Amino acid sequence: MNVEDPGLEKPLSTVIRQDIPHSARMYDWFLGGKDHFEVDREAAQRVLTVFPTMRTAVWANRAFMQRATRTLAQRGLRQWLDVGTGIPTSPNLHEVAQSVAPEARVVYVDNDPIVLAHSRALMTSTPEGRTAYVHGDARDPDAILGAPEVARTLDLGQPVVLSMVALLHFVTDLGEARAIVERLLKPLPAGSALVLSHATAELDPEGAPMVQEIYNKAGTTLRLRPRAEFETLFEGLELLEPGIVPAHRWRPDEDGTADRLPDAVTDAQVSFYAGVAIKNQ
């Protein structure tokens, strides 16, 4: 489904639910964005009562995405498939990649109608590169891979970065989460990369489980996972240094958004694991 012809049978105003909170709009509020409703703000404020550093956590997660993208672009990768894009927040992934390699190509994927409504912000490519948007769901990887926007934008005969940042904790079954990663990686050639981050309760065993409870009660299934489970999502791949670490500790010297974070960020305040790996075969 493309931006010019969304294919929605109803106007967006009737598709976007304003009576229940949505994780993407809550995330937008934590980032200081404007694309959210009162119900999202109320749910996000409940999160802050049990996990006061949630804004720090989401900024650390976003900074990880930027560092990982920059690192892989510097390693020579030029194509990205970003699943679970979320509401556009500049700099978006393609802006980071194209700041290193103007010819970089990015396909964004999300299933939230509000992301579709704002997807033109994701289409501001450099003349040398290209971006596209697919309205799709991570739980249907075959539909994503078969989307015409993917075929028109990416060359799957060349390495591709599969990026799923802060997404798979919304897939409650670990087997399903692993299957999604495996299916999306399967057609990508050697030299491709996987970028993941995932919320966890291991680093804050008191506050983080209460966040999970708030999301679940609000109608958004959330499953916080320990490092050992998160690590299985990288099975068969070669992790780049420093391996799986809290998001703010993944190559922090390369952080272009450090001014967004407090001077002394603790693992518990972030409570996201992150990692980047290469597919060697």
Detailed description of the structure:
The protein has 281 residues and is α/β, with parallel strands linked by helices. It has one domain (12-278): Vaccinia Virus protein VP39 (Rossmann fold). The protein has twelve helices and eight strands. Strands 1, 2, 3, 4, 5, 6, 7 and 8 form an eight-stranded mixed β-sheet that branches. Helix 2 packs across helix 3. The radius of gyration is 18 Å and the shape is globular. The two termini are 31 Å apart.
Summarize the structure.
With 281 residues, the protein is α/β, with parallel strands linked by helices.
Topology:
Blueprint: H1 12-15, H2 23-30, H3 38-50, H4 54-74, E1 79-83, H5 93-100, E2 105-110, H6 113-117, E3 130-135, H7 141-145, H8 148-153, E4 161-165, H9 174-185, E5 193-199, H10 207-217, H11 227-231, E6 238-239, E7 245-246, H12 267-270, E8 272-278
Helix pairs in contact: 2-3, 3-10, 4-5
| Quaternary structure of the protein | single chain
What do we call the CATH homologous superfamily?
A: Vaccinia Virus protein VP39
- CATH class equals Alpha Beta
Q: How many helix segments? A: 12
Find the count of extended strands (DSSP E, 2+ residues): 8
Backbone structural class: alpha/beta
Q: How much helicity do the residues have?
A: 25-40%
What is the 3D form?
globular
SS strand fraction? 5-15%
N/C terminus separation: 31 Å
Radius of gyration: 18 Å
Whole-number total of structural domains: 1
Identify the CATH architecture.
3-Layer(aba) Sandwich
